[in-house]
Amino acid sequence: MDILLILKALILGLVEAASEFLPISSTGHLIIVGDFLNFIGSRAETFEIFIQLGAILAVVWIYRARLLDVATHLDRDPSARRLVLNLIVAFIPAAVFGLLLHKAITHYLFNPVTVAAALVVGGIVILLVERYARADRVQRIDQMSGKDALLVGIAQCLALFPGVSRSGATIMGGMLGGLSRFAATEFSFFLAIPTMFAATFYSLYKEWGRLTMADIPIFAVGFVAAFLGGLVVVRFLLAYVGRHSFVPFAWYRIVFGGLLLVYFHYHPWVGN
User: Fold this and answer.
1) How far is CA 253 from CA 29, 105, 111, 128, 149, in A?
2) Residue 1: is its pLDDT beyond 70?
3) What is the reported pTM?
């Protein structure tokens, strides 16, 4: 067993957990950290896809009671049906555009320089949304309309661009549409379940042939780290948004992305 590879898997699993649900871009951070750790290539790409399952299962676990209640009362609870319908409406735009643009995005945009630029731009957008977003018209996700869900779904399409952040795009899109910070964050978590399961299984289906038995320990360590770290991050963010804005995350993105742009200006990225 290669201890160095196990350590890299642990680091990347924790990076996935920390960045998947915060508005700072998990894909972007995995690309950048993987590049610095020299954990790159087709094997690394498949690994980064796989550990997303660990992160999203953390959301499933935290919301297990709510999800079970929705599933068991779907036939007689209007709010449960509304939530499911809104998730379907919000899921469709990114699913369609993801299938159409996946190859082009992967080929042309998955590199640290693009990600660094997206981090800076995304940080500026968060600052603007926090300053100019409309008053909280929707306080809870069961008050959302189909139009609200569609707006969030359209915003999620922006996250197809590496470095934008799926959670950041959906939360900011929701806030622009009048959702409270908490409602936008919670709906982002729920929307992550079908979106990330679909994206992960689709990618794994295409890349499964690259895996070998020797990959199991590495993938297992990354998966567990992403799951356990995800439990902490989701609970932290739910508590955080009730009292604070996303401005600190915006400035983190701007500073981090700016430093990366300077670094890659003097140390050009040569690809995988």
Assistant:
1) 11, 21, 16, 14, 26
2) no
3) 0.90
